[in-house]
Amino acid sequence: MSSLAVLEDLPSGYFVEETPRGILAVHADSARALHEAGYGPDQDGDLVVSELAGRRPLYQFGPAAPSAAKSFLVRRFSHGGLLRWLTGNRFLSADRPFRELILSDALLRAGIQTPRVVAARAFRDRGGWQLDVMTCRVEESIDLGWVLGAMRRGEVPVPARHRILEGVGSLVRELHLHGCPHADLQPGNILVNLSALENEIPSYWIIDLDRTSRRPELSEAERQSNLARLYRHVARRDEQHGPSLSRGDAARFFRGYDPDGESWRNDWRAVRERYVAGLSWHRMGWLLEKVFGGRRPDPRSTGPGDAPLSETS
Q: Up-side HSE of residue 261: CA atoms within 13 Å toward CB?
């Protein structure tokens, strides 16, 4: 009998390793590579900080790891906002990475692209749990935060930006149709293939499914609240660094989200009203987080630079 009830719901192909200090759910196809790299229920093995780290660090296997393991990325869970300052990376519950694994598998089965989770882990750390999710690396991709920065600087051809934004709307529509309002729907959690910036057909992946759940159907309020979350992240960057999107760009997004043209006017009005109503509180929260939260500057908005060529977080 497993020590966590959630492990009973793991998809087929995964098995569980447990020690007194840790719990690891790993896919059978990846178990050997992880074992050879020294990664286990309570050991990091050859993990090093990845060059793909964005607002939060990611980890990958170093040069000594077998080649199969080098295609994996590890995201270590951390608290958001002021909780990061108080608790660091420790959590009271061990369930979250395993719930993310289960949801990731369900979305893939529904035809929504998300990096496949090859392992999920919880290990005991100073009276709490440290939590990891390991995914397959999405090569030659870039997150939407980098893309918006490039749009702000005029580096993305108009036809490409129209295609990309309409496709993002379609992606969010699919998530909502499948009862999945992403808990942190923001540009950094949407990946697009690099070649889309040169006007090739875009492909998308949704990442970082922590705290996200599925339900049979979303209410209008739940949909609009999730859209408002995405808008708030874009508007915050635009306020700090200058506009990245025009009214026409917003129309392209809603063309993808509402291809029948039935709800976009009400949705857009509700999104704007929610944003304006909560702006003072959000600005206060952003200020407190900047002063006390210890969050690193987001490199996506600080200048042209060199964007990472794969998944960021």
A: 1
